[in-house]
Write a structure and sequence with these properties.
Radius of gyration: 19 Å
Strand order of the largest sheet: 1-2-3-4-5-6-7
Helix content: 25-40%
Strand content: 15-25%
Oligomer: single chain
Length: 310
């Protein structure tokens, strides 16, 4: 029997997530399970859960290959809901036999964000992991800074742990640095970003195309990068627990920011949301697969919603 994401972990319980499993379904399963355990640890009960609009919860588009397959998108919010954190994901999977079988080719995408409200002094957890036809994989996993200069707003204890995790994975030959980052986007990359490109092919000095690491790329995604995602996510929840406990004082609420600090956080968060919504690199693909209206509503109402612009 194929494993499925437990229904209770989805904010929108009536979303049919299907029986097939794409490349990044295990990433979502792990994050949702960990989030549920985190909420239980914090004694957060299920209450009123913000809901993704019904017509944005899922969509599908026929895929040329394999025959009978489809490219399905599923969008959801984190459950239980923590009022001071906006958590959401968008999962795109090419699934064989109209979604009924496992398939790891075609288009496979996970965009996952945990975004604290301005009252919580934390970076944004962001994972953008993309697999494209031709065995090409682009991966970014990061604690994304909101302030200029890459300042993380992260307790030194947890920044030290983040540094150790980053060093361990970034030193692996199978995870080469992904290359230069555009200036406009670089302010939202921390120095601990795990940014890599895997697979595909490139020309050699004779102009012939050669596989770089394509034979092992998918295996690396499903093993090494999966474990990296889990470690980054676990550490983020650990740091968030620290902040929600008042900086280590168990049972207390998060330490209140000054009015100037709160104002700066609001401005920074608004800038982050504006930049991400206006420059979402998935926009052309979403438009091609699901149409302009669905694409723009998904970006503005779910991925980077105006209601989160605080």
């Amino acid at each position: 029997m194929k494993s499925r994401v437990p229904t209770k972990l989805f904010a929108d319980n009536n979303v049919d997530v299907g029986d097939g499993r794409g490349t990044y379904r295990p990433f979502v399963e792990y994050a949702l399970k960990s989030w549920s355990e985190f909420a239980s640890h914090r004694d957060i009960r299920e209450g009123e859960i913000p809901s993704v609009p019904e017509d944005l919860r899922s969509n599908s588009s026929p895929s040329k290959y394999p025959p009978g397959s489809e490219v399905r998108i599923t969008a959801g919010l984190m459950n239980p809901n923590i009022p001071t954190v906006y958590g959401r994901y968008a999962l795109i999977e090419t699934l064989g036999d109209a979604g009924a079988t496992d398939y790891f080719g075609g288009i496979q995408v996970l965009n996952f964000v945990l975004m604290p409200s301005p009252e919580i002094s934390m970076p944004v957890f962001g994972a953008d992991v993309v697999s494209l036809p031709g065995d090409k994989h682009l991966i970014v996993i990061d604690f994304q800074p909101l302030r200029d200069g890459g300042y993380l707003d992260l307790h030194p204890k947890y920044e030290g742990k983040l540094r150790e995790i980053h060093e361990r994975y970034s030193q692996l030959d199978i995870l080469p640095w992904g290359g230069d980052i555009p200036d406009a986007a670089s302010r939202y990359f921390s120095k601990y970003a795990l940014w890599t490109r895997l697979g595909g092919s490139k020309g050699n000095t004779d102009g012939e195309k050669t596989d770089t690491n394509s034979n092992d790329a998918l295996h690396t995604v499903q093993t090494t990068l999966y474990h990296a995602f889990c470690e980054y996510f676990d550490l983020y929840l650990e740091a968030l627990d620290h902040e929600l406990s008042g900086g280590g004082e168990a049972g207390n609420e998060a330490v209140a920011l000054s009015s100037d600090q709160l104002s700066d956080r609001k401005i920074s968060l608004t800038g982050y949301l504006n930049y991400r919504s206006e420059n979402d690199p998935a926009r052309p693909m979403l438009r091609r697969l699901y149409g302009d209206t669905f694409c723009e509503r998904l970006i503005s109402e779910v991925l980077f919603p105006a209601g989160a612009r605080m």
